[in-house]
Prior knowledge:
Blueprint lengths: L10 E4 L7 H6 L4 E6 L3 H4 L2 H11 L3 E5 L8 H14 L3 E6 L1 H14 L6 H5 L11 E5 L11 E6 L4 E6 L7 E4 L9 H19 L7 H23 L4 H14 L13 H13 L3 H16 L4 H12 L8 H18 L16 H8 L15 H10 L2
Bound molecules: 5,6-dihydroxy-NADP (NZQ) and zinc ion.
Amino acid sequence: MNNFVFNLPTRIFFGRGMENQVGVETARYSKKILLHFGGSSASKSGLLGRVRASLAAAGVEWVELGGVKPNPALSLVYKGIELCRKERIGLVLAVGGGSVIDSSKAIAAGTLYSGDVWDFYTGKAEPPKTALPVATILTIPAAGSESSCGSVITKEEGALKRPLNADCIYPRFSILDPELAFTLPENQIANGAADIMAHLMERYFTNVDHVEFSDRLIEATLRTVVAVAPRVLADKTGYDAWAELMWAGAIAHNNLLDRGRVGDWASHDIEHELSGIYDIAHGAGLAVVFPAWMKYNLRHDIPRFAQFAFRVWGVEPDGFEPERAAREGIARLEAFWKSLGLSVRLSGLGIGLDRAAEMARKCTDADSHSVGQFVHLTSADIEKIYRLAE
Ligand code: NZQ
Ligand code: ZN
């Protein structure tokens, strides 16, 4: 196990009705905030109305900026930064999913930075050390941004989707009320489950030895998602299964599960090229990319893939042919995702291979670096992975 620092700075308020505390909690940080949200879902469900009432009751003033789209755009981030500066905003409150939260984090970091916030995402500038405080009310268990230090933004020009990781953008608090997810359509539930599982699997495939404890934590979280996601789809207002999924989604991506180990993250980078260009849901892209990444890299560590197959999917170990058992684990993952209504092939998303070489080159910034820590992939490898996913 590697040395590590462990700090989870996000205070989580979990459970029914917790969003009604947002005013009181927000007032601890600032009396003037930006209320940031997406399309129409939070307003239709009545959530935004309750948030406004709670803020008003706590004496918090707010300025509103809606319209965050899935795969959040840099242009709206710039608008938010301008607004925060003009209105002397003290906190950004995200009401929505990963896209709204990521846009909020970008605004929070950009407001206090004199340069172009996009430079943080391209690596041209060092990650920020300060940002306005961010808080969230989560409406979809998926990206894990509610307790992560990450933000992923798309620059429309060039369809460049890039991540930033910085400690100062961890939300100060996040409100997780499973009931807020009851209005999600089936496809977003499935996309979210795939993303949560991908966050776990990115961490699972590591070259670091003696990580038995975190292996077991990841396996348990994966098995929980496999058990509860079908229950959520079967009963979209079943609180108990939603509660399990929402909590699993936050834990999957808040860095608890990768202390002392190094995750891979190639599948995420390879997927971000897809959602950047084709504007598909991130989870839908991962359901296509991850199995192909697994097949391509299986032989790097057959025992680890066989362990994944056995402990997560119950595939009996095969002492004579461990690769057979390892492949069966991938097949079970694909079958599970299909059972949720996801496609595990690019063709199912209506995407061909015409831009595969271009995406592979973009992913490595024109071959200036490799991608992935478990296996270091070149653009030639990545193109083959897109082809395997056809
Ligand atoms: O815009 P509205 O109308 O709110 O609709 C949203 C959106 O269309 C809808 N939705 C959300 N909650 C709902 C709801 N509809 C009905 N009822 C509700 N309760 O769902 C759609 C998708 O929302 P989005 O926020 O895009 O989903 P998600 O949470 O999956 O976020 C995806 C983004 O997060 C990034 C992804 O790349 C993608 O851009 N990620 C961020 C990470 C991070 N910051 O740590 C890590 C992830 O790996 C990921 O890359
Ligand atoms: Zn993800």
